[in-house]
Amino acid sequence: MSLRDEILNAPAVPLRYLAELNPRPNGIEKETSVYLPMEAISEFGPADTSRRRPSVELQRGYSYISNGDVAYAKVTPCFENGKGLVAADLPDGHAFATTEVTVLRPGSMLDKAYLGWHLQSEAFLSGGEARMTGSGGLRRVPDTFALAYKIPLPSMATQRAIADHLDRETARIDTLIEEQRQLITMLRDRRFALRVNVALRGTTPAAEAESPLPWAKTLPAAWHVVPLTSVAALESGHTPSRSREDWWQDCYIPWVSLHDVGIMRGVKYLNDTAQHISDAGIANSSARLLPARTVVLSRDATVGRTAIMGVPMATSQHFAAWVCGPDLDPEYLWVLFEDAMQPFFDSFQNGSTIRTIGMGDLKAFRIPLPPLDEQRRIVECLDEETVKIDSLITATERFVELSKDRRSALITAVVTGQIDVREGA
After folding, report:
1. Is the pTM of this model over 0.85?
2. In this protein, which residues make up the domain named Type I restriction modification DNA specificity (predicted)?
């Protein structure tokens, strides 16, 4: 009998008859136990077991997991991303996890690894996603879905053969994916190093001198270092009163706000914004309509995000803006903000605390100022070289996604018997 026939002829048994749901501990002897928050749980790979908390605290209101149990994340987007684990080699033999996981303890008829692979199959993931309840980021797969989910129950030997095959084959794919992810990291590092090097050294070799800037060790000796305010007019923004709905409805003037920082990383020109204001809103606030090619920089929340206005815009008070004079190309200033000055901007964040770049800090900005034609050569060089690296990154990312799709398809094919692993084992 083929594996497909065996699985098709095997009884499809609801998990409620094959596994215990969310088991509770009988008693914990250790004073501390491993704690697994969601970030410690991978996509059915090794869990980070480095965190420990007092056992007496964890026994109330946390999910209990012992070696041999199988757990999966039930909250979006962790469920869709396939987060979970087959518990093995846990310190002390057990751990406590966030309540956003569902724990299943397989009985004698169900192999734990076979169950773990089924929980990563398309049938389980798509079925669970369709049955999520709640709204927004609080959507969850109800435990009743897992209890009712029917799993084919071939012989224990076949279950183990399926699990062993998937262990081997997915390990090969995972190794390939990890190698490609390392390549992406290397390419991004190379991209950043290239952009910083060209921005601060120019397009042709030249004698260098020690830099007076804390974020640049050396600069071409012929370049000047100048206050940014000497070559660009510094502008700040404002938020018109929210109580005046007419200043915010049916408006056409783009208004740069914190809603836009998410799309600004790596984007040179910002041509539209999430929110718009009216002429009356500008007239009755400290906001000003700034010309196209003004360079904006986020002052807080996500310090250092930057872009060039593609059209006239106003900004909120969370941004500073520079209207460049004739000696400064806005695209060169953007390159400095986007890459070379990022270590400087990072200094405004200390751990989890971020402080605003105040007007005093902004007025004190100094930049290297190569001749205008060299600024433009730098921008052209970086545009040309960066697109080559970006193409490699995009192609590698696409390869990773295809490999992940192949992995998912393999899991589904094997657990449904489309591949007879007993013959290839």
Report:
1. no
2. 222-384
Task: Answer whether 277's CB lies under 8 Å from 248's CB.
Answer: yes
Note whether residue 86 is domain-resident: yes
Residue 277 near residue 287, CB atoms below 8 Å: yes
| Count of Cβ atoms closer than 10 Å to residue 132 Cβ | 18
d(CA 120, CA 83): 9
Question: Could you report the per-residue pLDDT of 234-248, keeping only the tens digit for each?
Answer: 998 898 888 888 888
- The torsion region of residue 134 among left (phi > 0), alpha (psi -120 to 50) and beta comes to left
> Do 142 and 186 fall into the same domain?
no
Host domain of residue 175: 155-202+372-425
State the average pLDDT for the chain: 92
Tens of pLDDT along 303-340?
899 999 999 999 999 999 999 999 999 999 999 999 99
- In angstroms, the Cα distances linking 213 to 209, 216, 406 are 12, 5, 49
Residue 76 has which token pair? Answer: 């979006």
- Domain count within the chain: 3
What is residue 137's predicted lDDT score, i.e. its pLDDT? 73
Do residues 350 and 263 share a domain? yes
Task: Mark which of 330, 350, 369 sits at the end of a domain.
Answer: 369
Tokens of 254: 């783009």
Average pLDDT over residues 396-401: 97
Residue among 198, 228, 138 at smallest CA distance from 379: 198
CA neighbor of 15 nearest in space, from 80, 83, 106, 84: 106
Enumerate the H helices of 142-293 as residue ranges: 143-148, 156-201, 261-264, 279-283
Query: C-alpha 251: how far from its chain's center?
Result: 33
Concatenate the DSSP letters of all residues of 266-324 into one string: T-SEE---SEEE-HHHHHTSS--PBPTT-EEEE-SSSTT-EEEESS-BEE-TTEEEEEE
**Percentage of the chain surpassing pLDDT 90?**
77
Across 5-9, 46-50, 253-257, 386-390, least confident range = 5-9
